[in-house]
UniProtKB/TrEMBL annotation:
Domain of life: Bacteria
Entry keyword annotation includes Transferase: yes
Keyword Acyltransferase among record annotations: yes
Provenance organism: Arsukibacterium ikkense
Protein name per its UniProtKB record: GCN5 family acetyltransferase
Lineage: Bacteria, Pseudomonadati, Pseudomonadota, Gammaproteobacteria, Chromatiales
Family to which this protein belongs: Belongs to the acetyltransferase family. GNAT subfamily.
Residue ranges annotated for the N-acetyltransferase domain, each copy included: 40-144
Keyword line: Acyltransferase, Repressor, Toxin-antitoxin system, Transferase
Length: 165
């Protein structure tokens, strides 16, 4: 069974990770652990099956303000009292593991975690920051681009819930 675990800089080899995008590599190596210690975000990793110190992929979750103005009118009206959305702030797969559906697995895992969080805290949307044209990757899984920024996409919690039940 595949399972994500919290990043642990003692157990995990951070310097080995290479998704091909330097800012994402650097975030994992230098910032992810520190941000988690401060409770600013959480980073989950998928370990290599046979070598758990090797990170196959990771994602980082936190919250972000809702940009209602850049959303379709029906959603603006429905969610006008809400202020925060769940944020998939980073998501990447090491180049040695790309093309094996691990990005898909990580995205589903991240959405399940956010759905579960929304069951107790209550927020209506999930937002993702897509770097380097990866917006198309997220669109495959039901995300819609914000009107003012194609690299920022959203999906409703209601959509996520419907796709998992
Ligand atoms: C984008 C990324 C997360 C995808 O992970 P992956 O494990 O290689 O992808 P998967 O094997 O799970 O692919 C699942 C599907 O998404 C598609 N896909 C993969 N990367 C894509 C991209 N950049 N754009 C559009 N579609 C993409 C695959 O072709 C596959 O499609 P299919 O269902 O038609 O077969 C990974 O390639 C990566 O980390 N890239 C570098 C960093 C990056 O751009 N991260 C995302 C922005 S923060």
């Amino acid at each position: 069974m595949m399972q994500s675990v919290l990043l642990d800089k003692v157990q995990h080899n951070l310097s080995r990770f290479d998704c091909g995008v330097a800012p994402l590599n650097n975030y994992l190596r230098l910032l992810a652990g520190q941000q988690a210690r401060k409770d600013n975000s959480r980073t989950f990793v998928l370990e290599d099956r046979t070598q758990p110190a090797h990170i196959a992929g990771f994602y980082t979750l936190t919250m972000t303000p809702v940009d209602l103005a850049a959303m379709p009118a029906t959603l603006q009206k429905k969610h006008q009292t809400s202020t925060s959305a769940g944020l998939i702030a980073r998501l990447a797969v090491d180049q040695r593991y790309q093309g094996q559906r691990l990005g898909e697995w990580l995205l589903v895992d991240a959405m399940q975690k956010l759905l579960q969080a929304s069951d107790s805290v209550g927020f209506p949307l999930v937002v993702v920051d897509a770097k380097d044209g990866a917006g198309l990757f997220y669109q495959k899984y039901g995300f819609t681009s914000f009107a003012d920024s194609p690299n920022k996409l959203f999906i409703t919690i209601a959509n996520i819930r419907a796709s998992f039940t």
